Amino acid sequence: MTTLSPQEIGAIYEKANALMVAGKSEDARAYLMEQLPQLPEDLRNKIVVELLNEAVQEELHELQTIDDIQEEGMAAAELLEELKKKKEKEATT
Amino acid sequence: MLEAGRSTGGGPRGPEQPRGSEEPTPLSDEIRSKWADTWYRDGEFILKDADGNDLVRVPNTEANMRHYNGGPIDNIAATEARSLQAINKALREASKPEFHTFEEWRQADEAEQQARGRRGPRMNRVYSGKDRERMQHNLGKEIESREMPEATLNTFIGRIGRVANSEDTRAILDELKGFPLKSAGDEAGRVEKPRYRLKSDGTHELVPPNAAELENQKRNLRFRLNALKGNSAFTEAVIGQWEESIGDARDDRAIQAISDGLAAFEPKPSEPVRRTERVSVRDRLVEQVRSLTTITDAERQRLLDRIPGLRGFKSIKKFRKDLDALLDREPGGAGILGSREEVAGAVEKVGDTHVVRSGRTTRLASLEEIAAYEAARTVPPGPTAPTTPAAGPGTGPIAAPSAPEAADPGAAITPDEQERRRRALLDRLKRRHRGGAEAEPAAAERRTEARTEESKILDPKKFKFIRIPFGNDVGWGTPWEVFYIHPDAEPGPDGKPRHFSVEEVERIKSGGGSTESPSVPELLDTGRDTEKKKALAFKPENYIGIKPKSIREIAANPRDQEAFGKLLASLTDNSPDILSRAATEGNLTQEERQLIRYAQYEHAKRMKQWEWLDKEIGPNHVKLSMKRNPDIDAAVRLNDSETNNFDITTKVWKNELLHLAMTDHQAFQRVYAAHTELKDLRERRSHRKWEASVHKLCDRVGVEPDDYEKMFKLDRGDRVATRARVVESLRGDLGGMGRVVGALGVTRWRANRVMKEADRLQRLGTEGDRWISRPTSWTLRDINTHLATITRTMAQTIGDEEKLQALTKAAMLNESVRLGRDTGPKSLEAARAGYREAETKTFSDIELKKIFDRDKAFARTADGRGWEGMNTAERTDWRDNSWNPPEARQGNPKGGMWAQIARRFIEWLFGERKKSLPVT
């Protein structure tokens, strides 16, 4: 892998920044992911941490939602149990 | 004579039943002073001196038994005599030799224990880790309760830090008796009795207070459990588990664990119980079955009979899938109650989250869907709640007719669209999470209005303070529930008087009028104020066992230097000035001196906690994130791999935690507590059992245990899709030749095995014995909660490493700057503008050299040498790693990931440029 000069890295930053400032965040992300392997290791590590941060946050919210859904599932099971008891009571009376 | 006395007779050796007498036989002062031991023979007590010579004989009366049996310590004599009787009785039954005195037995017992090597000397117990901490805590309270000069206090603190066994403890306590108590009734100053005891295997266990107290605690727990029966998470089976746990609790630790577990489900005093809208699920299923027209009555009855047998989310999901298949066959399916809407995707609110159910799947709702759902809810506020289906068409869960994706229910969602929705939802969640007022202006406005109204109505003078005990103080948690009530306040959702927290009342009294939880910025500010208050009320006795570093020691270690600077900066805006004066022994005010001392102690304490975390945290955290998110997996693998056990990323995480420890104490404590709790939970039997089963299953199938969730938490109703996912997942784990072999059939073979197990789990799931496939047990749920705490805290703070870094270095360089969060841009646009400015802000070489020359005058090595005294390597190191001039610093943008990435670029580029500056 070739080593990029600071000027070339500056150019990568400028292009990504330009995309970001223009509101094309998805393009900026794609461009950065494409260029990531070429960046120096220390810079790359820092960027990976930022990506990790983003992913963790997403995961957290997904986990919370799953928790909520499971909670409703448990509530449903409880209510169905009540329904069963009610039906059994009806059957006996 | 005495030896003969010991061996004579074959009957009981202990004292016989004493004869009645109220007063003990009087002893002369001479005899009393020589009396060292007591023997019993032939119905008399023989009092002996230290050499074993007889002094006097006294008859075996009850009073003499109390006073003379066992030895010359009156208050233990009777107890020991009774104990000796019991011991001898047991020995007789075991046909073993008996003892004449308690002391004799004690020495023999101790000798036997030592011979077995099971424990050290009886009276000098060496503390284990927790015992030691507990004893240090108790001793700390003891010295806190005594009047003494500060120098003496510090000496005691140092000694307490080195306490290692009970002999040390006794020595300190004896010395402390020479100092008067601060106040006679100071309950807090008393040393608690240790509640640990040595077990026969050399370990320690908590001593239950006593049977009555334990039972009282259990009764409290059962009472709290009963109060939770309205909670949807507490099904009959779950409650059964809890009750079983309460019944099994044998010590304080178990009681506390259960209490903490219950507390996780109990509502806070200020928040109402969140109840899931339960009626909707039952009605929906039953009504949908009844509405079917294409099935026979027998089939309908069979379906209805299945409903009571459903257990848990997954079985209900399967039932719904079957039901959907039948509903699809219905003529004019849109007319069937709720069915068509569900296939198209109907929005429902689950807790605070909007989801869209489409029969087979459930996904998060998009912003548009949420907006339409909320609009539909607010416009017709009739009885047709979204989850309360009526008996007519179109009255099922309210869909989002105005939303673009709802306009064409059959249209497939493109990946771009899905991504857009995901992003939109995340943005919304982030906004809501970071600042409620900013994210939801309408809701915030409503809350503000409500608060204002309430503050106008509620007379602060009428608040009544309530303090209710809900458990016994066993040294673990708060035994009192503390809150306020107000006679004019609206009752809570359960009809009972509304509870106000102490903070809420304080806010209302101060004119804030808020009855809501504070927003994130408010919490931060409060936290900072609290820290400062703590600093100003600093007491060294609260830091038993903590050895603070001196300023010079801190300055000598770059990590400590940075950490300390961050800590001090989080306490005061004036840290650069204070630090420089502290370093040069300049004049410090009393307040500043206290601040510095507090920071020194806190720094040492937090570093200690972080070092524990440093040992505990492994690459598993990174792996967990990677397993669940392909993006992050790809990103991490660019630099890191299994080969080095994700060393780089793990190290970065740990560094972020250190930063957190110094800058946000509350958040760090949450993470620290979550880790300690996690460690405890994972060592529990139920979790180990579950984990062992998972490992066994994964070994059998040939997949990594880490992949268990991915492999087996599948949509079991769709075998084709499930199989495709399994194959894809297995292929993803292969590399190099593995891909070739996989293509030849190995992947297919492994997929078959996984599917076989998945089917088996599904069968188990319907037959009752499905503990391995249960989504959660309460232990697992607690683990998830703690993991979420760690994850959430990290997610919120990881990007802020540079927030205080500049300030830290500035503090060390005697420069005055304000906190980044006070000066940085407040919006994404502002952040972008800042970067545009920063981008164009370039220094000429001359300017840069001038700044460098200015700053290098402040450079110091660990041993205090200045620039002139440094060698070339040290100068280079300072230039590259320490120097960070304020002219080149960025603000503190809150623009999210992109803003942070841009900052990383700028820093790196500046770092490269610095290298051109000469150091010689």
- Sketch the major β-sheet of chain A: none
Q: What characteristic shape of chain B results from the CA principal axes?
A: extended
Measured between the Cα atoms of the first and last residue of chain B, the distance is 95 Å
Name the poorly predicted regions of chain A: none
Describe the structure.
The complex is a heterodimer of chains A (93) and B (920). Chain A has 93 residues and is mainly alpha-helical. Chain A folds into two domains: 1-39; 41-93. In chain A, 85% of the residues lie in helices and 0% in strands. Chain A is built from three helices and no strands. In chain A, helix 1 (6-21) packs antiparallel against helix 2. The radius of gyration of chain A is 26 Å and the shape is rod-shaped. Chain B is mainly alpha-helical. Among the domains of chain B are: 2-116, no CATH class; 129-206, no CATH class; 211-265, no CATH class; 279-434, no CATH class; 439-517, no CATH class; 824-914, no CATH class. Helix content of chain B is 58%, strand content 5%. Chain B has 41 helices and ten strands. In chain B, strands 1-2-3 form a three-stranded antiparallel sheet. In chain B, helix 22 packs across helix 26 (590-616) and helix 24 (558-571) packs across helix 26. The radius of gyration of chain B is 36 Å and the shape is extended. The N terminus of chain B is likely disordered. The chains are: A mainly alpha (93), B mainly alpha (920). The interface between A and B is large, with 62 and 78 residues.
